[in-house]
């Protein structure tokens, strides 16, 4: 971590680990530079999507063959949602919550548009999801941990309700995998997708992973039918025959550099163990809430995250009318959080590398910024791209 | 290049350049490692897709704003073909040649499947394409340089015929960009896609680029509507509003490591200049054909590539009944070519780094392998993944 920086944005982009840095050097200098085309077999590049997927599986309660890594989160969502929709013909509703991450909603609209049957995208409030599931529901598409507030769905309850009505559930675990324990198997979950560059630290633009329960594999089909999803890609057959299992979710040539980086960085998360990480995450978040509420009372902050850790992911969000400027001013104090419109200041506590002293100091700096009013400086309210 | 290796497979995976290696170190150690999330703006990661696209544009006769880099070739093809199809409603044929690269055909089938109107994928022989274009043709989807034989389409003639019938043409330039001069502007081309890891040397699994003529931009629409294709991605709006121009072809978060590598490696190609590269490429290919035909006469080889350089890309293919075993035996002599079923031995001559002495030596080694019969050793006929 750079000197003096308190990084509370690992939920947007995880930091570089030594393992990822070293692995990238080896892949670039040796595997690509020296091994050239032969590394597809010699360095086993060809199996990277499945190998990395298998490693993710251990973090989310899945079997290794149920997970594969492939394209961006948005594209992976498209493939899974189209596949889920195709598994429930005759049902005319895709259900999501109105506060879902925008890309999830845009992709759901597209899947609805390309459906051969008329299909409606129905958006309801998060607390009305379970009662909105009915016999017309094909797929419920939800983000497990809300990107704004960190509020967590009860995965087991939603899945059970959906299954009782004959619907499937697709979980976006972008803010869950590596952040809190998830047990897809125990929840009898159907499908899931997650980001590789947040809590898994795979690097900027790292590929996402896709999960589908083994029981669904025989009937999977998705429209991005590229050669890497073919059962025999190197026979260059003129007819598409999907590979068995999750390999059919692949499309083009896998991004070897990014997958290698993700592969290496995952080891740190796996080694730490999700239960230990969760224990620390809860303690970090609780300390931050306590300190901020004690030190910043009367400064216009309101907790936007659930107060009870059971309902909260690994982030803490506070509302503030001028949250954008406050986050920008904090940045000048080397405390890196981020902002989500209209008024959410978001602080991610990645338990793998965030220290308790960082949490304490971050709360102190936030109090200083608010008390001193430095955030009122006009230069902090100029909008730029804050990811 | 590794010691003693004669690398004639740059049409499958281009080698590592010093520029790409150095750039990757900087991106990993400094931009990601030190700059963290701030590098999206500070290091201008957010504009990498357009910046790299603009660099590719100079190699293919396009305007900078007509090209963007994004996802794998297969996925990029899907987006462009779906967009092209939507520009010609009421026309019920996607036309391609029966020898197109498999992924191009699979993707065309998928685009046909998701079309709201009935649409037929019609496959004809390469020499029958122009006469097969009729008033029912929505899009003609062709690979400019055939991946097996290196045969080149007359881009201007096909485009002109298609336009005369009101159809669009989508060119796959995976074996063209960086290999021979292409002038999309002069041909009045509609759309094109190309691979980043072949002649452009972007690294294993590097992203592809997408081209659409400016005149088509106002009416483009594609189904992979992720947040990065939104006109204001960081407003997190619930409604998808496509960005202007090629940015709407983006979907998820761009793969920064791979794009940076491609960005750096492109400079070598741009600096060399496509006309000079073509002159050398033709000379390399002609030397190889002459030497192989002189030294390997009577050994069962038949030229599979066009003899006239005007009709040939930057590769030379020979048919041989046991081509697979011959290529494997050659590999042991450190001459790296590749094999495409059923009988094509493929040798790529990337003019940027292939030397005339390499060509001469490769022909000698091929003659040795064929004369000595070493390729008859059973271990050379065991099939594995040869990409």
How would you sum up this structure, described in words?
Two copies of one chain form a homodimer. The first copy, chain A, has 387 residues and is α/β, with parallel strands linked by helices. The first copy, chain A, has two domains: 18-271, 3-Layer(aba) Sandwich (Aspartate Aminotransferase, domain 2); 273-374, Aspartate Aminotransferase, domain 1 (Alpha-Beta Complex). Helix content of chain A is 35%, strand content 13%. Chain A is built from eleven helices and 13 strands. In chain A, strands 2-8-7-6-5-3-4 form a seven-stranded mixed sheet, sandwiched between helices. The mean pLDDT of chain A is 96. At the A-B interface, helix 1, helix 2, helix 4, helix 5 and helix 8 of A face helix 1, helix 2, helix 4, helix 5 and helix 8 of B.
Layout of helices and strands, plus pairs?
Two copies of one chain form a homodimer.
Chain A: E1 6-7, H1 18-32, H2 39-42, H3 48-57, E2 67-69, H4 73-86, E3 93-97, H5 102-114, E4 120-124, H6 129-132, E5 137-143, H7 155-164, E6 168-172, E7 191-194, E8 209-212, H8 256-272, H9 274-295, E9 302-303, E10 315-319, H10 323-332, E11 335-336, E12 338-340, E13 344-348, H11 356-372
Parallel strand pairs in A: 1-11, 3-4, 3-5, 5-6, 6-7
Antiparallel strand pairs in A: 2-8, 7-8, 9-10, 10-13, 12-13
Briefly say what this structure is:
With 387 residues, chain A is an alpha/beta fold.
List keywords for this structure.
35% helix; Aspartate Aminotransferase, domain 2; alpha/beta; 2 domains; homodimer; 387 residues; four-stranded antiparallel beta sheet; Aspartate Aminotransferase, domain 1
